[in-house]
Amino acid sequence: MPDEFAGISHGMNRPTDSRNRMLATIMACALLGACSTVEDAPKGEAAYAAIPPAPAVGADYRISPDDILRIQVYHEPGLSLEDAQVTAAGMVRMPLIGDVSIAGLSASEASDVIAGRLGDRYLVSPQVTVFVKKAVGRRITVDGEVREPGLFPLDGRLGLQQAVALAKGPTRLASLSRIVVVRQSDGQRKAAMFDLGAIRKGEAPDPEILPGDTIIVGLSRAKAALGGALLALPAVGAGFVALDGGL
Fold first, then answer.
1. Where's the Polysaccharide export protein N-terminal domain (predicted)?
2. Mean pLDDT score, 87-99
3. In whole angstroms, what is the distance from residue 107 CA to residue 56 CA?
């Protein structure tokens, strides 16, 4: 090839090389699964696909400090408690037997522990039932462009619109179309983005919020809180995308 054509060819390669590097990066991310930022959290139907029904407070719930319990000892009203609060140390104070450590136990396991303590010295084959009246351990975090961000107890079933209302609602300049919900699932943080404006107008369903969820109103705040980047991992499917690190 003549030199003059070789010079033209080399000059034209400069932008091509840049494009090739960009394409190589995109292909590498595609091979890994997802290489993106928090802006790429799934939206619309893909986001709703990841919202399962909220589980009830049942056998899988673990008692936490500050929970309120009803403790019934069959045929022993003097030993039963209607509003027993679990202490910060994870104890509940019972008549006769004193403090009993129950934090981290299910209601059924706590019943067995209390029955065992009563049966050791005071009662023959006691029957004890523990019921979680107020599960303070079921909490959510609301952050970002809201009037009063913070940690809130989750009593019963709750939608995204109600969750934001717990924080006294969004600020006047809040970006309602970009609300990120972060959830811990299968050992990973995952995120999805929802449009609160559309939910309020009835144009989109109100997703269910689960215990442990973090709701961040406003994309800029979400990027700051989450560090912006998502893990380059195999795709997690239509729904929440995996986020780097732990909450």
1. 57-133
2. 93
3. 13
Strand partners, 92: 100
pLDDT digits (tens, 9 = 90+) for 66-85: 889 999 999 999 999 999 99
Tokens 């919202």 correspond to what residue?
51
Q: CB of 199 within 8 A of CB of 205?
A: yes
pLDDT digits over 38-76, tens only? 666 767 766 666 554 444 444 567 888 888 999 999 999
Tokens of 211: 């215990």
Q: Six-digit token pair at 133?
A: 């009246």
Q: β-strand 81-85 against 68-73: which pairing, if any?
A: antiparallel
DSSP state of 132: E
- Say what the alpha-carbon torsion angle 192, 212, 149, 162 is, to the nearest 10 degrees: 70
For 67, half-sphere exposure in the C-beta direction (CA atoms, 13 angstrom radius) is: 28
- Whole-model pTM: value is 0.53
- Which domains are assigned to the chain? 67-134 (3.30.1950.10), 138-227 (3.10.560.10)
